[in-house]
Amino acid sequence: MQIPLDYYRILGVPLQAEDDLINQAYEDRMLQLPRSEYSQSAIASRQNLIKLAHSVLKDEEIRQQYDDEIFPSHGSAIINGDGNMDMSIDDALSLSETSIANPTIEVDGDLLLGALMMLQELGEYELLLNIAQSFLEGKEPLEEISTDTNQLQSWWQDLILTVISAYLDLAKEKWHQREYENASLYLWAADAILEQQNVFMPIRQEIDSDLQKVRPYEVIELLSKSDSQLVDRQKAIALLQKMLDSREGIEGKKQDQSGLNTDDFLRFLQEVRTYLTPLEQEELFKQESSRPSIAATYLTVNALIVRGFVERKPELIIQAQNILDHLNQYQDVYLEQSICSLLLGNINQAEKLLNHSYETEKVKSIKKLSQGAPDLVPGLIIYAENWLKEELFPQFKNLERESSSVQEYFDDGRLQRALENIAPPEINAIDEEDPLSLLKDYPSEFDQEETPLQASEIPPPNISTPEIEKTEEDSSLVGFSSFLEAEIDDNDEPEEPKNDNLISDTPEDEKEMSSSQNFSSSPMIILFVLLILLGIFSALFYRVFNQSGDANLEISLSQSLIELPEELAGTDSSSQPLSPEMASEIINGWLEAKALATGPDYNLGALDNVLADPFLSIWRGNINTLRNQSAYRRYEHDVTIEEVNINPQNNMEANITARVRENSQYFNNGQLNNQQSYDSNLLVRYDLVRVNNRWLIANSQIIN
Question: How do residues 608-619 score in pLDDT, each as one tens digit?
């Protein structure tokens, strides 16, 4: 069989090697031993191949003949009549790399395994796997080597061991290159072969240990990819779930063999959560809450509040409120309950719950912010907005641009319509029921919530992955700390629920619940909801006209009653026409972002504020290509707006036609490449979509 090797590589010597070097290399090779699991026949096959290479190269005449065979067009130029080299070492090495297409040696059956082992030692893993593939598909090819059944079985196991060693070495390579998913794939490939053949159990244990160690890195890699696909994200979440199962949950005391202690795991979990969407977190932590887990239950509550607020679904906030009522037997969650009541428009209940809280400093701060108002609503609104913006939103993927404004929340027509169709919120009395059982009774249409841990409690781990900012540990906002600390420090199991039938699952009960919540046809309920909303804003107007001189509450009639984020402050951009001036700002903003993103720092984040998919994904791919080529660009732009149009059928879409003069310099490895640089005058049409009251570019087309 032809194997892509030559005798120089087998001994590890250059073409110009003299006898002393060849002899020394031979001795070194013979002293090196492969893995102890190899049979004596495999070791002998390897040694015989090394002996053959030595016998050819140590004899001058045989070596010359061999050189003529593998260097057919250059053999006479290598060695002169005196037997000395006519070329330099560098020339000889260059010749060996460029002039020999595919040097091979022919080996018989006894040397085949030794040749495969040598390919593995030389790092030719892909070559080895390609050659071994035909043997892995069945033992028939090996039967040509030997008819001895015992010897055939021994050779088969040696072949498997060689292939496994190649996979493990490839996994190590990828690990060092920080390609953790690929490292894991090679480990799984090796494990699958060993499982199928049911051999080398100690090696399987080694592989299993390596898979546990690479798992957290693989999770982060899969989730943090800018172009991560659904299958990648599902795989990452499944791996994370396995880690949680091995540790027996967030508060578990067992290990998952990843090498992360409890604190490291919590830091890792915090970083993972920032890459998870609300839906992904909901599915993960809702399942965790059934262990039971007080921590996961609290996380689920936070998810319900976030989704209820962002999606304007008060029914989700009602669910969160019901669970919090029962969580109160474990921890003081009156602040969270008060915020839920506020978001449901139940002002009296919100103030009542707030006054029950033992968080005296936070309550005192809310009261100070509400000075001059008839109730605590103004301070509670400010507190709730800060909590959402600073604590909850940063713990979810894709919520960076969400507004935490309570005013916008109540102004939204979706919320007003939803409130008309649900019953006024009722606060259940706290009893000894198990709050975890509430999660089992979520209606099916609400099975998509998700949850965040507080950033201050679980900072990111010290591993080679993207880092996130940590909030201060003494955050003044309500958070996850008390739950987490209680669970980590206390080895006792949570109290068993005293009543397993907290909510009946019978169809009759479901029908009664459904009918009791269907108030859409009742004019009295609609009027009640409107009065609630009117009460909120009456309190705010009272605050405007009845200030008591507190410096923190200076509000003029020219200001918004509730502070808006900068990009939403003032007139709602959704009602503004897309003027040529605005169009010029949008296009210039895109071109400036492009310059930053394609520059030497590859600032991909600059694109997020100006582009929407599919344009965003396209340009992320373009920049990754530049980075892989060690290239970047520098730009100069001049823009003239030609035309601005808003889609008459859909005012969320528009297009801008602009004349763009673009001067681009292309640098590769720091050197200017004039051939790929250009200076162009282009007429370009940009397609825009409005997202969160901001115009983003979704596509572009060069007209000429």
Answer: 788 987 888 788
